Amino acid sequence: MCGLNLLQPNRGVAALLADGTQVAVFRTNDDEVFALSNVDPFSGAAVLSRGIVGDRGGVPVAVSPVYKQAFDLHTGECVDDPTVSVRTFAVRVDAAGVILVSTG
Predict the structure, then answer these.
(1) What burial letters (b/e) apply to 52-81, b meaning 16+ CB within 10 Å?
(2) Burial of 51 by CB count in 10 Å (0-12 exposed, 13-18 middle, 19+ buried)?
(3) How far apart are CA 81 and CA 92, in angstroms?
(4) Predicted pLDDT of residue 66
(5) Do 16 and 25 touch, CB atoms closer than 8 A?
(6) What does the mean pLDDT of the chain come to?
(7) CA gap 24, 98 in Å, rounded
(8) Structural domains for the chain
(9) Sign of CA dihedral 36, 41, 45, 51
(10) Whose CA is closest to 61, among 31, 101, 52?
(11) Measured between alpha carbons, how far is 58 from 46 in angstroms, rounded to an integer?
């Protein structure tokens, strides 16, 4: 569990879901929260949570720290190569401010 107040804006954290899936959870500057697979499909490394959060043309993205590809936080699509994407996860913040990520 992670509280929204512990996740800094424009940063990501890695989390392990109950089913063993690694996710990268991001909080944007406007307090939106997103979750993507933590595995960078270009390098195979579980590093997306360490990427830079920003935007490309108004689209919120996380940029991989390895080869610098940007992934759309809404869709998981790679902005630099639309043939590649990462899995997205439904995420919400409950009334107590806890970030919840769906495994389904």
Answers:
(1) ebeeeeeebbbbbeeeebbbbbeebbbbbe
(2) buried
(3) 28
(4) 97
(5) no
(6) 94
(7) 15
(8) 2-101 (2.102.10.10)
(9) negative
(10) 52
(11) 26
104 pLDDT higher than 80: no
Average the pLDDT over 12-34 and give the result. Answer: 94
**Ramachandran angles phi, psi of 59, nearest 5°:** -95, 120
In the block, tokens 């929204």 appear at 4
Question: Which tokens is 44 given?
Answer: 């195979």
For every residue of the chain, which 3-state class applies, written as one string? CEEHHHCCCCEEEEEECCCCCEEEEEECCCCCEEEEECECCCCCCECHHHCEEEEECCEEEEECCCCCCEEECCCCEECCCCCCECCEECEEECCCCEEEECCC
- What integer pLDDT is reported at residue 6 of this predicted model? 86
